[in-house]
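agent> fetching stored inputs for the zinc ion docking request
agent> found them:
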Amino acid sequence: MSLAFSEVWRDAGVDGGSKTHPTAMMVPVKGANLVMLTGASAQLQFKPDPHFTVTEITRGNKGAMQTAKREVPELAMRSKSEDAAGPFVLMPLFGEMMGELFAREMPGRKLDDALARATSTSTRLLLVEGKRRGLGRLTVKSGGSEATMQVWVRDSRSIQTSFHFVQDIGPDGKARPRSIWQAAAASQWIARLNDIYTPQTNINFNLHAAAPLPIPQTLPDRLALDQWLPLAIKARGGAAVNVFLVGNWIGDGNDPLGSFIKATKDIVVDDHKTHDDIITTIAHEIGHLLGASVSFGHPDPAEKGFLMTTLNWRRGAHIPQAYAQHFNPI
Ligand SMILES: [Zn+2]
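agent> prediction call returned; pasting tokens
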């Protein structure tokens, strides 16, 4: 068996096994990430690189364990075991109740789970700590074989994000919410965006504002791009990312799940009834926004588990390092 790197958790900053992208990982400057090494037959030897340090984690290596516990986010997110347990659907509940459901349904990535999979002598768990921004290379030898991968050491990038819950005028002459979603959902959306983006790109989204946005007219039930653009609201208030919840959105007539509007740098999303569906759509449209300078689209249509291919988190929300280089360049 030859020496090879593989991801510890799905969509957590390790690219491996894809035909279209090289083996690579994301490591934050002054932070850490984990990668699995399979096919080891002996002591590991690492080639030094100024961008990072690498340490094998074992139950006996208390220092590395403590660093990993401190630096590697154990996220409240899907893991392989939860995927195997089958899909579940959350209806749009709000506030505390939704937070509780999430905590229960998604117990998260645990270092202990990773260590349990790295118990055989051939499978090892490596902690990679970022020291200097830039592209490094992790090369390891074990016995007669060698494996190598790219290590992208990225600074953290903070992005202020606002959610605008559009209201129009109803038949009774009063303000009418267009979306089933309310501002109370926003903090959970931010947490989930960070679950997707932080381990893969070292981008952190911060909640700038989440509030109703009243429009003093009656809008059509099915809102189209040409009706929205004249309204394209001066409500940004300093946020870099602005997401508009408009209810039933038909975009340019193709009835998309969501749209990134290049002219205004706005994201408009159709109402999705589940938290997961709406947040995956928002995360995907944010990818278009972050890559707007190169008109970033859907470069890998065959990679069904990529965030910029799919709008279904069960298929994956993977962001390879070539994409991350547009979203948060080193
Ligand atoms: Zn798209």
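agent> quick read of the result: The helical segments are 62-71, 80-84, 96-105, 111-117, 186-201, 225-228, 275-290, 321-327.
agent> awaiting further instructions
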